[in-house]
Amino acid sequence: MVPLAQTERILASDLTQEEVDRRFFAIATDLVGAPTELVDEAGDIAWRSRSTLWGTTAWARSSTAYTPLRFPGQYYDAESGLHYNLHRHYDPETGRYTSPDPLGLAPAPNPVGYVHNPHTMSDPLGLSPYPQGGDGPKIGEYTSKGEGQDLKRSAMVGDDQWHFNTGHGYDRAHTGPGGVQNDLRTTNLNPDQIEQEIVSDVYRYMDNGGTVPTPGPGFSGPLERSVHIDGHDVGYRVIKRPDGAYQLSTYWLN
């Protein structure tokens, strides 16, 4: 969600027709898509902002234009000082939302927190950090053993070792609520795609302050979450083994 241009009209009784006519500005943005400059048709900078890490924005009084756009998906409300973010309002002074996430704790363990790093991530809907999925850490080359429901695979993700119970997750039906049978094999998804999306979701979760449980004293069970992949809701369970490797125990179609 990167804005490209802005058009506007200035209406007043004493203005010439040329001034009343619509004005056009190209929008220059930072890495995540927050506006930093408005450039007019003559190539002159009509508005330039200075922002804090969490989005508090200031600009010169001599600016000849203005935009209320802030972080991707956010619109500045001058009366409250908050940023309207579709599903919630964001306070740039505290770097937090003013209300809990409508999705609960699924996107991140802190329901009022913004993204972990505003230089590289955003939350355009006020629901979940972006980028997602394939934009996360990449799974390296797999090694595997077994086949069918017994297929197990291992791979490196950066410096982390991962183990995947691929057969248990993909090559069988899952019984959901009410005894309904769901089967990932009936979708257009494949194991590589599913596991990449899950791994990316786990790292996003940890980037936002979450931890993956390790079996041992005080262990209350694996991390259980779900991720949306091409219109499908896929649940999964993952642990961090005592040896430091991550293990995707299983996954299923919700």
Automatic annotation (TrEMBL):
<dbReference type="InterPro" id="IPR022385">
    <property type="entry name" value="Rhs_assc_core"/>
</dbReference>
<feature type="domain" description="Teneurin-like YD-shell">
    <location>
        <begin position="22"/>
        <end position="101"/>
    </location>
</feature>
<dbReference type="InterPro" id="IPR056823">
    <property type="entry name" value="TEN-like_YD-shell"/>
</dbReference>
<dbReference type="Pfam" id="PF25023">
    <property type="entry name" value="TEN_YD-shell"/>
</dbReference>
<protein>
    <recommendedName>
        <fullName>Teneurin-like YD-shell domain-containing protein</fullName>
    </recommendedName>
</protein>
<keyword id="KW-0677">Repeat</keyword>
<dbReference type="InterPro" id="IPR050708">
    <property type="entry name" value="T6SS_VgrG/RHS"/>
</dbReference>
